Automatic annotation (TrEMBL):
Main location, first listed in the record: membrane
UniProt subcellular location: Cell inner membrane
One GO process term, biological-process aspect: amino acid transmembrane transport
Gene Ontology CC annotations of this record: plasma membrane
Signal sequence range: none
Alphabetical UniProt keywords: Cell inner membrane, Cell membrane, Membrane, Transmembrane, Transmembrane helix, Transport
TM spans (from-to): 32-51, 57-82, 103-123, 135-156, 165-185, 197-217, 238-257, 277-301, 321-339, 345-365, 391-412
Taxonomic lineage of the native organism: Bacteria, Pseudomonadati, Pseudomonadota, Gammaproteobacteria, Enterobacterales
InterPro entries per UniProt: Amino_acid_transport_2
Organism: Pantoea alhagi
Protein's name according to its UniProt entry: Amino acid permease
Entry superkingdom: Bacteria
Membrane topology: Multi-pass membrane protein
Length: 416
């Protein structure tokens, strides 16, 4: 991915943007870590299982395609934020450049995806700590909840620093596990060529949910308001690292076990094949992955709530507390509510949210170029906004949504 530079906005102008959300500087590494940490959630542990019928090569194909198109739509949002003085989140950008209906549609998309992911992390962390420490799942979720909500309360800078430290630990653990995998005599690269491309379409939807960092681009933008030219570079770097990590996990698990023996959670496959040390290392990696993704998505939801309802979430403690309660309590309650039917409803809504996130950034950028407040320090190259690129993105996500809904009602094979 390459860049085209126009003329820079002054740091003074950039940092003077006025909303209830304040600019708090991020380092380049912290910004990259926010991208990686948000993307690398529970999804990285399940994509090998999701691809057990299609195989690794179709999964790799979708990781490349979805990673590239997601990066493009993130760059659309990045340019729109750099054309806007106020620190607006996705719903605020949609209200400014698309109108009130678009704003509510975007806000609903953010809420649905974030709520679903945070609920999954609450539930998954409880089961994970139960397997590691023998704790009741609800107590395990509560222990996960304390650092998750605590860092979220402290704000953007704390999230960036925490993401940086834990992402470094995650990468080191993953390299250790992958290295040990390829030292095993039973590891066979031939397993990577197994599978059936006829089952590739359902894998797309799983991969889409693994690239969820679109939501945090406006958050990163206010962190880079004093050095906006670093925003697109951090996005591309973070997405490239995400791709490598998302590819390494299923590659290792499938090469080690073959498609027939892939477990629903990748950590189980590693633990069974490599021993107890791998079981504990992989599960700690999984816990870290859920924690970093929780911070990214939770922080985005928090600021979107403030943006949508004009709450001063960075300066008024009471309004921040109200927004925090809306972010952290529903996932915990839903995780242990026993609402089984909620999963299907969430899946349908999540698919449509993917369509919203593929189309809305195009409209936001298009109107930001006409109605924006200032010339940006960076803008997308012309080929990134070519009608062919936009058409492919829209058609791909619409076709995926149609297939997902049809398979949910057993009109097409789901591939699972």
């Amino acid at each position: 991915m390459s860049y085209e530079t126009s003329w820079p906005a002054s740091a003074k102008t950039a940092t003077a943007r006025a909303t209830g959300v304040k600019a708090k500087p991020l380092s380049f590494v912290e910004g990259v870590a926010m991208i990686v940490g948000t993307n690398i959630g529970a999804g990285v542990l399940s994509i090998a299982y999701a691809a057990r019928k299609a195989g690794f090569m179709p999964l790799l194909f979708w990781l490349v395609v979805v990673g590239l198109f997601t990066t493009v739509t993130m760059l659309y949002v990045a340019e729109a934020t750099l054309r806007t003085r106020a620190h607006l989140q996705l719903s605020g950008l949609a209200r400014r450049y698309v109108g009130r209906p678009g704003s509510w549609l975007m806000f609903a998309s953010v809420c649905v995806n974030s709520l679903g992911a945070l609920t999954a992390y609450m539930s998954g962390s409880g089961r994970l700590l139960q397997s590691l420490l023998g704790l009741p799942p609800s107590l395990g979720s509560l222990l996960f909840f304390l650092p998750a909500a605590g860092v979220l309360w402290l704000g953007l800078k704390a999230i960036g620093r925490s993401e940086k430290v834990i992402c470094i630990c995650m990468v080191l653990m993953l390299l250790l596990l992958v290295g040990a995998t390829f030292l095993q005599p039973v590891t066979q690269l031939a397993h990577l060529l197994e599978g059936n491309w006829l089952y590739m379409i359902p894998v797309f939807n799983v991969v889409v949910f693994c690239f969820s960092a679109q939501y945090i681009v406006p958050e990163m933008a206010r962190g880079f308001s004093n050095k906006p030219e670093q925003l697109p570079k951090a996005i591309v770097t973070g997405m490239a690292i995400t791709f490598v990590l998302l590819a390494l996990v299923p590659l290792s698990v499938i090469a080690l076990n073959g498609l027939a023996n892939v477990s629903e959670v990748a950590t189980l496959s590693w633990g069974e094949a490599l021993g107890n040390w791998a079981f504990f290392s992989a599960n700690i990696f999984a816990l870290f992955a859920m924690l970093t993704s929780y911070w990214g998505l939770g922080g985005s939801l928090l600021t979107n709530i403030g943006d949508r309802f004009n709450w001063q979430v960075d300066s008024a403690a009471r309004q921040r507390l109200m927004a925090m309660l809306l972010v952290v309590l529903p996932p915990f309650l839903l995780a242990y509510s026993g609402l089984v039917s909620f999963v299907n409803a969430l899946y349908i809504a999540g698919v449509f949210s993917g369509v919203v996130l593929s189309i809305m950034p195009m409209l936001i950028l298009q109107n930001a170029r006409k109605q924006g407040d200032m010339q940006p320090s960076w803008q997308c190259r012309a080929w990134l906004t070519h009608p062919i690129i936009k058409s492919v993105i829209v058609l791909l996500y619409l076709a995926s949504a149609i297939y997902a809904i049809a398979s949910l009602f057993n009109l097409l094979p789901s591939g699972w």
